[in-house]
Specification:
With 172 residues, the protein is mainly β. The chain has 3 helices and 7 strands, in the order ααβαββββββ.
Length: 172
């Protein structure tokens, strides 16, 4: 896959890549080599010039804010739609948090599927439970939403450092 970007849309078509491991083995490519493939040219935040990450990564991990995709540099007031994608054949923990005044703020994520987790992150816990929050209740200031993704290598030599993506916005 090349030039993967954060153009996820709810209810949009999805492509699933399935690797024929028997054919890979016949060609001399081990299962661990397939699982530990480095992903290149993942385009982070293309609408504001975040740029293509030139370094190959162990997994796919992208974070975005729908409102900023629609209108970059918009100051948010009452809506925050956090979109994310994380993928690796041996995907570990995936977390999204937000820092800013009164934070950190937690999000709930959709359940993972085999080797991937994606969708819309929502504030956690949901209102009106203690500790819940809404965008409208945030103080006017700058906030940073961060995604951390853990991948587990199949070589058994340890867990590499988490993969991170961040995006900032201003709440008015």
């Amino acid at each position: 896959m090349r030039d993967v970007a954060t153009d996820q849309q709810n209810q949009a078509a999805v492509a699933n890549l399935q690797i024929d491991r028997d054919t890979a083995a016949r060609l001399g490519v081990s299962a661990s080599a397939v699982d530990n493939t480095l992903y290149s040219n993942a385009d982070h935040h293309p609408y504001w010039g975040g740029g293509v990450d030139p370094n190959p990564e162990l997994g796919v991990y992208l974070l975005d804010i729908l409102e900023l995709k629609v209108a970059p540099c918009t100051e948010l007031t009452n809506s925050l739609t956090v979109l994310f994608t994380a993928a690796h054949p041996n995907l570990g923990a995936v977390n999204i948090t937000m820092t800013g005044p009164g934070g950190p703020f937690a999000f709930s994520l959709p359940a993972p599927l085999a080797g991937q987790q994606f969708g819309t992150a929502v504030p956690a816990p949901p209102a009106p439970l203690p500790g819940s929050w809404t965008v409208a209740s945030l103080a006017p200031c700058a906030y940073i939403v961060g995604l951390s993704v853990q991948v587990l290598l199949t070589t058994g030599d340890g867990v590499p450092s988490d993969l991170y993506d961040q995006i900032a916005f201003c709440k008015m």
